[in-house]
Amino acid sequence: MSGGGPTAGNGRNGATPAAIAVEKIVKKYGAFEAVKGVSFSVAEGEIFGLLGPNGAGKSTLIRMMTTLIPVTSGRAVVAGHDVMKDADAVRRAIGVIPQALTSDQDLTVEENLSIYAKLYSVPREQRERNIAEVLESVDLAKWRKAETKTLSGGMRRRLEIARGLVHDPRIFFLDEPTTGLDPVSRIAVWEMLNNLKKTRNLTMLVTTHYMEEADRLCDRIAIVDHGTLVALGTPVELKQSVPGSNVVEVQFARESDAWMERLRALPDVTEVQSQSAGVYRVLTSNGSQTTTQLVEMAASMGEQLTSLSVQNTSLDDVFVHYTGRQLRDEQVKSVFIMPQRPGGNA
Ligand SMILES: Nc1ncnc2c1ncn2[C@@H]1O[C@H](COP(=O)(O)OP(=O)(O)OP(=O)(O)O)[C@@H](O)[C@H]1O
Ligand SMILES: [Mg+2]
Q: pLDDT tens string for the chain (346 positions)?
């Protein structure tokens, strides 16, 4: 499915070695191949996103890159060290935030950080400095003495991020840092990660299944699905790789088998995705023209539109284009249960 789209390159910086280089990496669990020969590289200072649905292989990729599980075949080089041959050197250079929250609930914020710093043999005087610094950068300084169990979900995530940074790593791996957070806390975490990137010159590899998060935060994104890399590029490159630059989202008051075909037949339309009963995303190279034609078409047939909007192509469209599926099926379900009054309205 990768034809035509941006594909994995070997880093775009000829001179500086990549912070992370993964070559044809494979992970098998018994007979099941969870990661099927993925290659990409991450330049120093980059925020690189692994975007994919549940079970795509994101955590498996992170676990291999962070030496937590062995690589079945292929190679991963992190901070210049092979993860299989020199795991200790890799571990010293990286910080890791696993998918599950792992800070100790019964300890204070400071104690959680201190244990980690000791684990990484950060010398005592530097420990104090590092803890103060990371607490400042995640905006938890005044919660230093608080017990971890009293923190909100967003604050706990921030504590985990602080903990991952307390030994001053060069490369930071974050597995779904915002899953389960409310929208406000999610945005706060994004802003924090952006600041960290600027102030600490960190290289970050972030996994997520939130499109808008990847779009806003990442310099480049690799879309993974069923253990395979299906597209790789900057958010802009990925969106440009999908035919059609606008998306007209339309809802017809009445569902009909005919809509799909009629929408596809409109000039400038490059792709039509069915969202739910009567709801379609129409990719087009001319948003305003398609909107006019769509309204005229509905009027001439005596059909009513419930809603109509024009947007730019999103990473959602990129994902559907390369995988043929919606990333978040719960989104579709939520449209299905919207109450509809008989007779409709327009
Ligand atoms: N220890 C294991 N043994 C067997 N299969 C596993 C193991 N860990 C993961 N898998 C399988 O490998 C595939 C990839 O899982 P992985 O956790 O890497 O996905 P993911 O992209 O991180 O998903 P999520 O968004 O749900 O976290 C899944 O089908 C999963 O069931
Ligand atoms: Mg995962």
A: 333 344 444 444 456 789 999 999 999 999 999 999 999 999 999 999 999 888 999 999 999 999 999 999 999 999 999 999 999 999 999 999 988 888 899 999 999 999 999 999 999 989 999 999 999 988 899 999 999 999 988 899 999 999 999 999 999 999 998 888 888 888 888 888 888 888 888 999 999 888 888 898 999 999 999 999 999 999 989 988 888 778 899 999 998 888 999 999 999 999 898 888 899 999 998 888 999 999 999 999 999 999 999 988 888 888 888 887 766 543 333 323 333 444 444 3
Give the residue, by CA position, lying nearest to ligand 1 atom 26: 54
* Structure token digits, residue 144: 């230093």
Distance 98 CA to ligand 2 centre (A): 9
Tell me if 32 sits within 8 A of 82, measured CB to CB: no
Name the residue with the closest Cα to ligand 1, atom 3: 29
Residue identifier of the C-alpha nearest atom 11 of ligand 1: 34
For residues 186 and 332, state if they share a domain. no
> Which neighbouring-strand residues pair with 149?
none
Pocket of ligand 1 (CB under 6 A): 29, 32, 34, 52, 54-60, 99, 209
Single out the residue in 185, 213, 239 at which a domain terminates.
Answer: 239
Regarding whether 311 and 222 lie in a shared domain, the answer is: no
280 and 326 part of one domain: yes
pTM above 0.90, yes or no: no
**CA-proximal residue: ligand 1, atom 5 (nearest):** 29
Residues 273 and 247 in one domain: yes
Domain CATH code at residue 102: 3.40.50.300
CA distances (Å), origin 337, targets 277, 334, 341 = 10, 6, 12
Q: Do 204 and 74 share a structural domain? A: yes
Angle between helices 109-119 and 153-165 (to 10 degrees): 30
Is the domain of 259 the same as that of 208? no
Could you give the number of structural domains in the chain? 2
For residues 305 and 147, give the distance between their C-alpha atoms in angstroms, rounded to a whole number: 54
Residue 292 belongs to domain spanning: 243-336
Distance CA 306, CA 346 (A): 5
Pocket test for ligand 1, best of 28, 36, 59 (most atoms within 8 A of CB): 59
The CATH code of the domain that includes 321 is: 3.30.70.100
